[in-house]
Amino acid sequence: MRRLARAVILVLPALAVGGFMALFFVWPIGGVIARGLGGSGPAAVLGDVLGSESHRSVIWFTVWQAAVSTALTVAVALPAAGAMARLQFRGQRIVRALSTVPFVLPTVVVAAAFEGLFDRFNLSGGGALTLRHTVWAILLAHVFFNYAVVLRTVGAHWSALDARVEDQARVLGASRLKVFRRVVLPRLAPSIAAASAIVFLFSFTSFGVVLVLGGPTRATIETEIYRYAVTRIDLETAAALAVVQLVAVVALVVVSNALERRRAVAEPAASFANAPRRRGLGLVVNLALMAAILGLPIAVLVERSLAAGRGGGYTLRNYNALADRVNLLPDTALAALRNSLTFAVPATSLALLVGGAATLVVIRSGRRGGRGLGRFFDVGLTLPLGTSAVTVGLGFLLVLNRGPIDIRTSVIIVPIAHAVVGIPFVVRTLVPMLRTVNPRTREAAAVLGASPRRVQREVDLRVAARGLAVGAGFAFAVSLGEFGATSFIPRRPETLTAPLALFRLLGTPGETLRGQAMALAVALMALTAVAVFVMDLWGDSRRGGF
Amino acid sequence: MLTVSGATVAFGRVKALDLIDLEVATGEIVAILGPSGCGKSTLLRAVAGLQPLDTGEVRWDGEDLSGLPVHRRDFGLMFQEHALFPHRDVAANVAFGLRMQKMEAASRRRRVRDVLALVGLAGFEERQIATLSGGEAQRVALARSLAPKPQLLMLDEPLGSLDRPRREELTEELRSLLRGIGITVLHVTHDHDEAFAVGDRVAVMQSGRIARIGTPADIWHDPHRGEVARFLGHANVVTVGEDGAVPWGRLPVPAGPAVVRADAFSRVDDSVPGDDPVVTGTVADVRFRGDRFELRLRTDPGDFELLVRDPHPAATGDRLSYTIDPAKMAGLSS
Amino acid sequence: MDHTPSRIPANTGAPRRSVCLGRRAVAVAAVALTVIAAACSGDRSGRSEDLTGTTVTLLTHDSFYLSPETFEAFTLQTGIEVEQLASGDAGALVAQACLTAGEPLGDVLFGIDNTFLQRGLDCGMFEPHESPGLAAVPDHFELDAEHRVTPVDFGDVCLNYWVDAFGDPLPPPSSLDDLIDPAYADMLVVQSPETSSPGLAFLLATIARYGDGWEDYWTALRDNGVSVTAGWEDAYYGEFTAGGGDRPIVVSYASSPPAEVIYADPPVEEPPTGVVTASCYRQIEFAGVLAGAGNPGGARALIDFMLTETFQNDVPLNMFVFPVIDSATLPPEFVAHAQIAEDPFMLDPAEVEAQRNGWTDRWVEIVLR
């Protein structure tokens, strides 16, 4: 009976998650690849792609720019994660929430902000240093977009670690640097590995940043898939590139998961508030850096949203205009924001549901046999992050009319597509945190008379609350800002989302349209910041207490 | 010798340390006793250099430590929850400080083995941290702190996470171990039994200040202050008026608060007259404590409740009289 | 250079309101024609076509939008509801439709232009339908003799210039030739034909103009400091003067100046930009009945409706393109500020389809490497 109950606890969520991912990820992707490689045979097409000098250089560029972007992001955001985890200061939660807003910004808007900055600081060419249309612009933008991934994922883990372990090392004679290297870093390895994997995948599949900021000469596997699938309708090459992309992503995720698992060591989560620490130069430097990387481009957008067209001066007119319909849009920009929200809420819920179930499977199967299943899930669920939106979008069209109903054009596809991208965030923030829950904490709860389900709820959920909040915040922001897959899914015009409206507004000349687009971008950011702030509040309130 | 003078640390409006002065002689064990939140952990952190002082200074052998970073002070600090490095085994935990001192591998291994033996964990080198019991973890933490032979060892509630019997056993063990090494120690605890058992001197901390410092006997007999007396478990704190007036009569102590220890009472037969001050009352409650009884006595005049230790049995409602030993009462400074 | 705006003949400034009265009549006539046409072509299934209460699904790209009243008029006249499904840009739309040819997501596809036309025809996504409304459409808009697609609107991709940047001593460019003149060095920003629809159109314009000499022309453009961006937004708002950039010539649309007036802030009388009419490449947008459509009758009715004045008059302000029927009425901003090239460049769709990848590959080698 017990055995059966256990099996049910493991198998049911496994089936649910597996079924969801099979239907909405594996099948569509498989469909595209099968269709693309079906004609000439996979070996021949792959051989052609890998044999071509230009494809090889694109693959190489994709890999190294993603690797460097990841290293840079971690290097820049890790100290800030430490500052946020170890220091308390006024407005901390606001800073934490604000750090996620780049996530929802369409690349075109961000690119405009960056180019504005390049112009202002004379980095567009002609000056001593040129950033415009260089690899540096791409790397910088990737740091901008992914900063929050490291800050929040690692920060949440870090603040759950007992700070006195570090103090102990200091007292035993380790300098700050040594404490970080020998005591902090090894314990943080799981969350750093998880965050790095996400950043790498995002940079790996980066589309707009590469095209707009990198200039027309740069190409990644992602932009090439789009070019071959859409501009050239060469599905064969596109599918071969998709396979290459998938293989690279699987390899990366397997390595990072192994690292994450090997390094995860159970320790008591800090069940107390870590002693308040002095805020010093470190905090100032971190906040200044954050302001420079995240704040400046955002400030440019805010400034532009307030600019009164070519006449000069500032006005709130652009914001008021959000409630008025312009001819180009089926509804007001405000309605588009509302649509985005109505997609983001079910998408986030779905991501939490599936991601939460998947986390259970990963964590539980690690404890009892079935390790293979856990690993398979752990790897498989991260893949959507590293898969091109074009492949997924085309895949939906190819296969989703096979069932009893044709859901290719159903509106539920949009939140589902968003959730598929949000799930890895939930899993990747939860798994490392739950892995570090000391088994003894669980045993203690069990000895105190808690049933296994109760243990789950009391111990795991409390530890997970912060991770859930972080994961939900990301899933929400991803949904609000998602463009690629959404634009690829056939939708009714009334379901126009804010990022799509933004593109439409920016696609026609005219100062009022541009001003309104900027105001919409700022409104989208504000919405994200508020939502993430609220989720953080919830996560923090659930923390501790056992 | 450790000298702390005028040390102040404020967190917002709360002063965790308020003008602390403290001297610890080389080889001396000073126990810092106080309720949670009194600032005793902050004091350790300040001495260790983990907590910068707002004002005041910390000196070692007369040398100002303010410019010296934590890892160069050569002090040891052991936390309540041990703060072991969860990602390393026992040997690596204990060897950590030695590695920081760049001790070569062979002597390091020897020292780890010796220190583990010293704390009674010989052969534990390769155990993983997560597999240790609470008592074992406490010993590993102690071994780790002792291994680099610090000039000063600070223990922050070292036995705090253990249950009562283990705790009493280990208090004894800890005391003989520390005495044996002859190391200078600051030992923080909220348990007066532990403080009195371990400390050469005890400093009672309250609200960021040292309320009383002295040998355990001094403090027990003469707590000086009402709060200290109450914290030590003295139940009978009374306010003495002019001419020694107390609710039930008179006491030969100066005006102000005073403490009357529970063991100051001797039961008297009403028929035998004596010079000692006498208190009479009704027994409100009796508890048997093994070798004695603890009575709550309501005094006849004044209706004041006194805690009385009495080797003889009594029953609720009994009317009893006691003499009070003047040596077992003390005036307190307000 | 000829600065007089060329106008569509029918567009003689009739007030828009008065046209509304006429709309319905024309539309009803169109519906009648449809029914006749359907009757004449002979319904293969043999049933009479009663489409009242049916729904027709229109697949379009993300930039498609019309006033709700327009579709309401269609429903009022035919009893057919229109459901719109939009996705991606024109390229993505065609790619999707090709992939699902035979199992279409809808009944009508709108938004395939002459650069992608041949591909759509080749993958067999359309079914022929000769709309009676074609009578009102100038012949040069009709590119498929089999009537698998019907022209609905057109928009020219042209060089735009910032008016204030030119005058004395340097006049605005008047031809493609001017761009390689060192006097116009470092002034031009174009989009990559690999990633941008106007970028491709401009490349095709140069190929149409110079033939085999286009490679030399682009070599000269490169030497004269042409700047390339990935997309239109990046060019127009990034490098062109309009967005604060320092390049006063950009590849954009013939309808961009009216948009600059309609959406000006503060309001302006004259657009800040002008169009080089001798540089325009014509992009015609087509609609077609999708093969395998669930409601082919409704699809044909909708395509017929697209050629009515009701539909055609609604096109300019919503999509910033021009109507194809002669009798359509242009909004005043278009009348005043839009310049239509009299003899725009255009290439045969079949040739474009056959050569495009080779051309763009070659272009990348010349300009970007």
Descriptive account of the structure:
Chain A has 22 helices and no strands. The relative contact order of chain A is 0.14. Chain A is an all-alpha fold and 546 residues long. Chain A has one domain: MetI-like fold (Orthogonal Bundle). About 1% of the residues of chain A have low confidence. The mean pLDDT of chain B is 85. A six-stranded mixed β-sheet of chain B has the order 6-7-8-3-9-10, with helices on both faces. In chain B, strands 15-19-16-17-18 form a five-stranded antiparallel β-sheet, with no helix packed on it. Chain B folds into two domains: 226 residues, 3-Layer(aba) Sandwich (Rossmann fold), CATH 3.40.50; 98 residues, Nucleic acid-binding proteins (OB fold (Dihydrolipoamide Acetyltransferase, E2P), Beta Barrel). With 334 residues, chain B is α+β, with helices and mostly antiparallel strands. Chain B has eight helices and 20 strands. Chain C has 369 residues and is α/β, with parallel strands linked by helices. Helix content of chain C is 38%, strand content 18%. Chain C contains twelve helices and ten strands.
Summarize the structure.
The complex is a heterotrimer of chains A (546), B (334) and C (369). Chain B has 334 residues and is an alpha+beta fold.
Helix/strand layout:
The complex is a heterotrimer of chains A (546), B (334) and C (369).
Chain A (H helix, E strand, L loop, with lengths): L1 H37 L3 H10 L1 H34 L5 H7 L8 H14 L14 H25 L3 H9 L4 H29 L3 H6 L7 H11 L3 H29 L17 H26 L10 H4 L12 H35 L3 H10 L8 H11 L13 H23 L3 H9 L4 H30 L2 H5 L9 H9 L4 H32 L4
Helix pairs in contact in A: 1-11, 1-14, 1-16, 2-11, 3-6, 3-8, 3-12, 4-22, 5-12, 6-8, 6-19, 7-8, 8-11, 8-17, 10-11, 11-15, 12-22, 14-15, 14-17, 14-19, 14-21, 17-19, 18-19, 19-22, 21-22
Chain B lengths: L1 E10 L2 E11 L4 E5 L6 H9 L6 E6 L2 E2 L10 E4 L11 H11 L4 H14 L15 H13 L5 E5 L7 H18 L2 E6 L2 H7 L2 E6 L2 E6 L1 H6 L4 H6 L5 E4 L4 E2 L2 E2 L5 E5 L4 E4 L9 E11 L4 E7 L5 E6 L8 E6 L4 E3 L3
Parallel strand pairs in B: 3-8, 3-9, 6-7, 7-8
Antiparallel strand pairs in B: 1-2, 1-4, 4-5, 9-10, 11-14, 12-13, 14-20, 15-19, 16-17, 16-19, 17-18
Helix pairs in contact in B: 2-3, 2-4, 3-4
Chain C lengths: L15 H26 L13 E6 L7 H11 L2 E6 L3 H10 L8 E6 L3 H6 L3 E2 L22 E13 L25 E4 L5 H14 L3 H10 L3 E3 L2 H8 L9 E5 L2 H7 L10 E18 L5 H11 L2 H11 L2 E2 L8 H6 L11 H20 L1
Parallel strand pairs in C: 1-2, 1-3, 6-7, 6-8
Antiparallel strand pairs in C: 3-9, 4-9, 5-8, 5-9, 5-10
Helix pairs in contact in C: 1-2, 1-9, 5-6, 6-12
